Amino acid sequence: MNPTKTNRQTILVCLLAALAGLLFGLDMGVIAGALPFIAKEFGLSSHHQEIVVSVMMFGAAFGALCSGPMSSSLGRKKSLLLGAVLFVIGSIGCAFAHNVEILTVSRFILGLAVGVASFTAPLYLSEIAPERIRGSMISLYQLMITIGILVAFLSDTALSEGGHWRWMLGVITFPAIVLFIGVLTLPESPRWLAMKDRHELAGKVLKLLRNSDKEAQNELNQIRDSLKMKQRGWQLFRHNSHFRRSTYLGVLLQFMQQFTGMTVIMYYAPKIFEIAGFSTTREQMWGTVIAGLTNVLATFIAIALVDRWGRKPILKLGFSGMAICMGILGYMFHSGISNPTEQYAAVIVLLIFIVGFAMSAGPLIWVLCSEIQPLAGRDFGVTCSTMANWIANMIIGATFLTLIDTIGSPNTFWLYGVMNIVCIVLTILFVPETKNISLENIERNLMRGEPLRLIGQQIFKATRPGTAAAK
Ligand code: BGC
């Protein structure tokens, strides 16, 4: 990467947009620590606790569903602003909730915000970043998610002494306000502007963010070319089999990310430490913080490698590592953990699993999902994949404890191990390598009917104009 002035400007823009990920992570991470106190104050049954937790994922799926049409009509920037406003309202609502109904509604509003953020931020980043650093810029978003989760774990640990659950949930208002102010300074996505026929403004934004006017003009020409496709969103999905393929791939990718088992570890880390023999709450809380820290640090590996090694090799490596770790953990739980050496060995395997996820599927699935969709269907395609993330997240979150109770810990972990092996096969068969290729190039390959795993190959001058026409 050439660290010129323009690039620095792009990185700043990307960092600000990635702040949305921080809010996503904070809200995902905070509930684990706050829940016991909330349950005590309102006298909640397990069922009510499940509702308080899962209503946010439900809101996120719904928020992602609404984000497609919204970001397509209002633009990426206004959608992010609305997301920030929802974060503020939801956090204040949670902090002041005097009964469980208000808390539930506020958590739903937070869910909407998370849905909007998880849809809009990676999409915006993919549309703003130049191709040579696109992977690492979208990975910044995942880095922010992991930092959010870690900070939430830390604040839970710090505030748990006095049981200050209202503060745990309420402090999130402050980063939400920072997000709002930050987004106000962002330029609109040049691709969205071009889609709305505001080509001159799109050109201006590109000139601001690229190294030369020539580079900006070339990119604008490519964007215009991909806008020759007249159908949009749902219409395109109904009539264009190529677009259906990329939409299904996005959904598959997000299911793969969730079925690695990482979400289970993020939601139930204390429980897993308990299974591994750490019986005090203090040990479990600190174990959880270390897991969160590992998640943050290992995301840097992805940021450093994604635009050099490419997406596919890193994904294969990550899934393989996760499969092996799940296999070993299953074995350890099967043979029983009876002494401190075995306890720490289990923790190390768990941390290696987290490294496997954070350097691969964590960031790269978001990267790929926002890269593979054609411009005319990007909002629709990313809506479907983001919704899939939240639906799979709900399924995983709601089944883990039941799985442990019915088939036992060893089998549950082996099951996740097998799912990671399936993910390796799916990566080999269907995932394209999109490193260093423009979004428009990927789109042309897709619409020419190339197999999905080949849509990231470079097209040289041979491309005929208009090949992107709807099939
Ligand atoms: C995933 C979450 C996961 C988190 C962990 C995100 O990319 O979508 O489900 O818990 O990463 O870092």
Distance between the termini: 37 Å
How large is the radius of gyration? 22 Å
- Net shape: globular
* E-strand count: 0
**Overall pLDDT metric:** 88
CATH second-level architecture: Up-down Bundle
- Small molecules (ligands, ions, cofactors) in the structure: beta-D-glucopyranose
Helicity range: over 70%
Task: Count the domains.
Answer: 1
SS content category: mainly alpha
Write the CATH homologous superfamily. Answer: MFS general substrate transporter like domains
**% residues in beta strands:** under 5%
The ordered H/E elements are HHHHHHHHHHHHHHHHHHHH
Spans of at least 5 consecutive residues with low confidence = 460-471
Give the helix tally: 20
Under CATH, the topology can be stated as Growth Hormone, Chain: A
Mind explaining what this structure looks like?
The chain is mainly α and 471 residues long. The chain is 80% helix and 0% strand. The longest helix has 38 residues, at 5-42. The two termini are 37 Å apart. The model is unreliable at 460-471 (pLDDT under 50). Beta-D-glucopyranose is lined by residues 142, 145-146, 149, 257, 262-263, 266, 295, 362, 389, 393.
Describe this protein with a few key phrases.
471 residues, mainly alpha, Growth Hormone, Chain: A, binds beta-D-glucopyranose, membrane
A few lines on this structure:
GO terms for molecular function: symporter activity. The chain is mainly alpha-helical and 471 residues long.
Topology:
Blueprint: H1 5-42, H2 46-74, H3 76-96, H4 100-128, H5 134-160, H6 165-170, H7 173-184, H8 190-195, H9 199-209, H10 213-226, H11 233-239, H12 241-259, H13 262-275, H14 281-309, H15 311-335, H16 340-358, H17 361-371, H18 378-407, H19 409-430, H20 439-447
The structure holds beta-D-glucopyranose.
